[in-house]
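in:
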């Protein structure tokens, strides 16, 4: 089916437009409409602006503004056409009502409108999605707002997907980008799909006939051969690389993206330190390459007003030279009605940049309540006793002041809970690392402590990295040695416990020469002084028992018995019995 042809500038037919408010058509003869502007673009919310004469200086009044007809919240539809035929070019709601007085022009009433889906842009939300595709997560959001939708199904099911403190619209468009899709709103319907290249052009424009204005440019800088996505696969400990080229993009002109990519001969590289699924990285790679080809030729074509050209459609350009002739993808349309004329500007091609790169979609740090502080900062501890009972430490930040005591900081630790966890505080004067919750300088947290040339480590570093441990201010030590496979617990005076697998030893010793040692050939208990064994009942048994001393005394305060199943030998220089 041949593409429709826009009317030539001199085509017969009287411009006819309608404004319908709450399903009631207003009288354009009563309301003096100066201009109508409608903009519809992929990844943006449809917009309309109506400017009309209003205001009477003599009566000091704005009668149209005073009516209820154009107050915010009113539903509005704009239709345009020629003769008796009109088509809707915008449907939405009034959201802004303003008046304007200028010294060089008459007073005006300005009405601005957006599609009803604008509510997706108004608030920041946070959500968890589990075991859903992007399209399913987006459908869940749109269902919450009661919006109609047409969503192309995405491929990857995410075990976990998080929306954090951003508008639903920003989240939806960002996820569409990652899947190589565009989002556009068509009179209340939210649509998400990949660019349509297989359909027939909806319009044919020819220079010298129905093309009024034309601006186009070809830029080779963003034409790369393919996109490469590198991601870290934690399960295997390797960098995984996915590459993709989309060869199905409709490109106008006789120089293709593949031809232009040889000029700078580079590949677009994305490094992602998460671990997305292989299929997800393939989608990202393909999406970037598709954007590259859509950005090869960008421009604007103006013609007499047409209503059937929508974002994500194709038009055909003729008579503009071999470099720009052919089918071209439409990313947006702009309708303007003024002074009895209706013109349509058609936006051709797309930016090579994604939505998140062109728009500020992340929330302001510190909730925009004061200038934020970014990154990690050095601090010096000044106090350990928190008067607020929140277990904080006070830290001075040298880059703020070297004289003030600083601010109270929470302390991140290995484990923390109600009456349990690890408790390791820095010492006063220690150098620590500070981070800040939400980049807010009022809410610091100590996330680590630092050794330096001034504050040396108790263990000398080595590439072998065998020794690890902890040493307190007084010199108490807990040392692990991976070479010896040993563990040492020691006090400054010399009391120690050593568990040594390499030496096959367990040793409990003190600074007085007392020790208990266990080795493969036996166990030794040594005392530099008196060795006392006591108990309610003490039993000693063995294959052989030997007791020797310069003086040996065995005494029973009650009964005493010496018994043997064999010979009993009692021998001495003098033996006394009784």
């Amino acid at each position: 089916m041949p593409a429709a042809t826009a009317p030539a500038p001199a085509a017969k037919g009287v411009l006819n437009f309608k404004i319908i408010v709450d399903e009631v058509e207003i009288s354009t003869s009563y309301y003096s409409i100066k201009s109508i502007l409608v903009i519809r673009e992929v990844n943006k919310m449809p917009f309309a602006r109506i400017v009309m004469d209003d205001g009477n200086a003599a009566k000091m009044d704005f009668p149209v503004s005073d009516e209820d007809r154009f107050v915010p919240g009113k539903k509005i539809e704009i239709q345009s056409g020629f003769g008796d035929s009109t088509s809707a070019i915008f449907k939405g709601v009034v959201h802004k009502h303003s008046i304007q007085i200028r010294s060089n022009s008459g007073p005006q009433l300005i009405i601005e409108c957006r599609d009803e889906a604008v509510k997706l842009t108004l608030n920041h939300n946070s959500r968890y999605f589990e075991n859903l595709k992007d399209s399913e997560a987006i459908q869940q959001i749109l269902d919450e707002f009661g919006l109609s939708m047409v969503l192309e199904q995405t491929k990857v099911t995410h075990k976990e997907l998080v929306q954090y403190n951003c508008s639903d619209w920003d989240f939806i468009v960002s996820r569409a980008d990652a899947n190589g899709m565009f989002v556009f709103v068509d009179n209340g319907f939210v649509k998400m799909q990949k660019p349509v290249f297989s359909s027939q052009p909806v319009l044919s424009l020819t220079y010298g006939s129905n093309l009024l204005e034309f601006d186009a440019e070809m830029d080779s800088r963003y034409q790369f051969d393919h996109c490469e996505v590198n991601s870290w696969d934690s399960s295997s400990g390797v960098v995984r690389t996915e590459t993709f080229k989309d060869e199905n993009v409709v490109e106008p002109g006789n120089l293709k993206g593949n031809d232009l990519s040889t000029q700078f001969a580079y590949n677009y590289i994305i490094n992602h330190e998460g671990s997305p699924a292989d299929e997800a990285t393939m989608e990202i790679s393909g999406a970037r390459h598709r954007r590259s080809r859509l950005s090869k030729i960008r421009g604007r074509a103006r013609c007499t007003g047409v209503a059937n050209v929508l974002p994500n459609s194709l038009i055909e350009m003729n008579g503009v030279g071999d470099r720009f002739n052919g089918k071209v993808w439409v990313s947006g349309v702009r309708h303007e009605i003024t002074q009895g004329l209706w013109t349509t500007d058609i936006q051709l091609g797309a930016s090579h940049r994604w939505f998140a790169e062109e728009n500020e979609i992340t929330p302001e740090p510190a909730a925009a309540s004061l200038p934020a502080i970014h990154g990690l900062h050095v601090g010096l501890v000044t106090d350990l006793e928190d008067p607020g009972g929140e277990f904080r430490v006070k830290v001075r930040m040298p880059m703020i002041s070297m004289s003030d005591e600083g601010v109270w900081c929470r302390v991140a630790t290995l484990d923390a809970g109600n009456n349990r966890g690890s408790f390791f505080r820095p010492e006063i004067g220690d150098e620590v690392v500070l981070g800040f919750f939400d980049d807010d300088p009022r809410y610091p947290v100590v996330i680590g402590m630092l050794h330096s040339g001034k504050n040396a480590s108790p263990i000398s570093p080595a590439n072998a990295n065998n020794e690890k441990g902890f040493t307190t201010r007084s010199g108490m030590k807990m040392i692990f040695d991976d070479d010896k496979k040993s563990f040492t617990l020691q006090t400054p005076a010399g009391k120690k416990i050593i568990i040594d697998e390499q030496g096959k030893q367990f040793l409990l010793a003190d600074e007085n020469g007392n020790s208990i040692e266990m080795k493969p050939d036996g166990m030794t208990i040594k005392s530099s002084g008196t060795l006392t064994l006591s108990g309610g009942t003490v039993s000693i048994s063995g294959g052989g028992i030997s007791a020797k001393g310069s003086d040996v005394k065995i005494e029973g305060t009650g009964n005493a018995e010496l018994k043997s199943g064999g010979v009993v030998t009692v021998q001495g220089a003098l033996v006394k019995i009784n």
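note: DSSP finds six helices and 35 strands in the chain.
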